[in-house]
Design a protein that fits this description.
By secondary structure, the chain is an alpha+beta fold. The protein contains two helices and nine strands; from the N terminus they run αβββββαββββ.
Amino acid sequence: MANPHGERESRLVALFDHLLKGMPCGTAWVECRRGENYIDSIISVKPSNARSAAFWVHIAEVWPGIDVSFGSGTTIRFNDRNFDTIVGLVRQLASAVIAGRCDERFGFLGIRGAIRVDAENLYYSIDFFHPRLVPKTVCYVPYVESLT
């Protein structure tokens, strides 16, 4: 079965390749997976440093619908019908994650993840019902130390 998201998927892979261009070899890589029956697509940027946050985009079966996730799985959903607008947001969010401007707070009942694009733009998500006995905050580091 053909992938219905082929063009969108290709644009996001190209975007991630562009963001990683110029980084030392082995710093991170782009991976593309398809869901069951090739309906959904997941495009990931995976860092080699375990203290850096992975970042991925899920293109949902039904358009509009793109989720971006990072770290342990904090997810932010976009429902804009304009794919170019979404690509711009994905670029900003992925750049911030690559630069280490993201964190996750694991509380007693949930997770709050945040990506700081710049001083005025903070994107966050709160997901409940992920109990933890000991709260902690994970502050992710840049893929390359010179990005700070």
